Amino acid sequence: MNEIAQKKATFLGIVPLLVFVLTFLGSGIYNNDFYALPSPIAAMIGIVAAFVLFKGSVSGKMDVFLKGCGDGKILTMCIIYLLAGAFATVSKASGSIDAIVQMGMDYISPAYFAAGVFVIASFLSFASGTSVGSIVTLAPVVLEMARQSHTPLGLPAAALLCGAMFGDNLSIISDTTIAATQSVGCEMRDKFRANFKLALPAALLAIALFVWAAPEASSVQSSTTSLPYNPLLIAPYLLVILLAVAGVNVFVTLFLGLVSAGVLGITMGSLDFMQFTKSSYEGFTSMSEIFFLSLLTGGLAALVDRAGGIRFILTGIQRLIGSERTALLGVGGLVSLTNLCMANNTISILISGKVSKEIGDNYALDPKDTASVLDIFACYVQGLVPYGAQILLLISLSSYTLGFSELFFQAYYLHLLLAITLLYILFKPAKKSPAHA
Predict the structure, then answer these.
(1) Alpha-carbon torsion angle 205, 206, 207, 211, nearest 10
(2) What positions does the domain Na+/H+ antiporter NhaC-like C-terminal occupy (predicted)?
(3) Are 351 and 23 in contact, with CB atoms under 8 Å apart?
């Protein structure tokens, strides 16, 4: 036999995927750090397990693996990662991110400290596409302002967490958005519009709650020094947002954003041409882990699919699914459970994406709904899992004066986003009968 047996639902087919997940999870628990073991190495261990366990020749399995790595959606995802990384790095080097932070801090009213932190973090994370980067950028300033004004750290820290996850979920240059849309075959602009309709009311209600929950905010007095900044430096981010909303091709959008950030930096003297090229390359290399992980998980998913693993998972989930609504809940539950194990929303979406695509095809789900549910549920779990990078960062940057319960119970936006999404799923009009037999 030269190739892996054709699809037939078997438990053995999912064993390599379980090896990958359990290796990643076990290492995280053992090291008390879910990022101690590089995720591409965990994926490689799963791939080795597939080559050992599955029947067929090595050349046949290698053909299946390489076809999975070279899948058009996987390669598209990888190129987008590179452009997104370059844009974020060049924007930082040109001073655009510092300008956004400073402008936001200048316009925060002391009476609305937590709400203002949420808005600034939301804009920054949407513009940069990274929750971790937004927390790293803003946390030192936010936490110091809270300390100097004798404001309890919990509320502004929770507001920062929520704002960081807002952009992580919505931004077109977020790796979760890229992974969700490419996995289920959805246009980014369609997913953005569908996702935004759920995120906007959650964000507005969260702002009201952040204001309501901070009666002592009127006594907040910032002692941080206002630094000069050029508002023009915000232009590359505004350009990317406008092009994305207008539906311009994502490659064109990111390339024009990268070029505009570079030209602005060179014009204003914060960069020269060689620094621009080096910063762009640094952006490429900053995405190396997710780049390699996408390629390797694409190959692993192809092996698992060919051996009947995906069919086994799908068959199990379908026993619990009886309608379009329960199909969407199944997608949300699948990515949530995966994220609880992985503590990484991008990895969870990559793992769950192929099964979610099949569920969507079988039950005639709108791809934009499937992509939104994938991203929202992964965002919710990632933002609140106690061993996730976001909460661990906030707790460590606060010198461990923050508690998990403070962040969890005051993360109003995340709880509202989940509630609104569940209401949408449960009460949305049925489109048509399921397409499955």
Answers:
(1) 100
(2) 11-212, 238-425
(3) no
In angstroms, the CA 27 to CA 161 distance is 25
For the stretch 178-200, pLDDT in tens is 889 988 988 888 999 999 999 99
The tokens of 118 are what? 């949420």
Per-residue tokens: 221: 């007095």
CB 138 within 8 A of CB 160: yes
Helix (H) or strand (E) holding 328: helix 324-342
Going from the C-alpha of 305 to that of each of 48, 50, 299, 353, the distances in angstroms are 15, 11, 10, 12
Predicted confidence band of residue 64 (pLDDT cuts 50, 70, 90): very high
Residue 290 is encoded by which pair of tokens? Answer: 């997710």
pTM for this prediction? 0.70
Give the C-alpha distances (Å, rounded to integers) separating 358 from 324, 394, 420, 424. Answer: 13, 37, 25, 21
Please provide the DSSP assignment of 358-401 as one string. Answer: HHHHHTT--HHHHHHHHHHHHHHHHHH-TTSHHHHHHHHHTTT-
Other Cβ atoms less than 10 A from the Cβ of 428: the count is 13
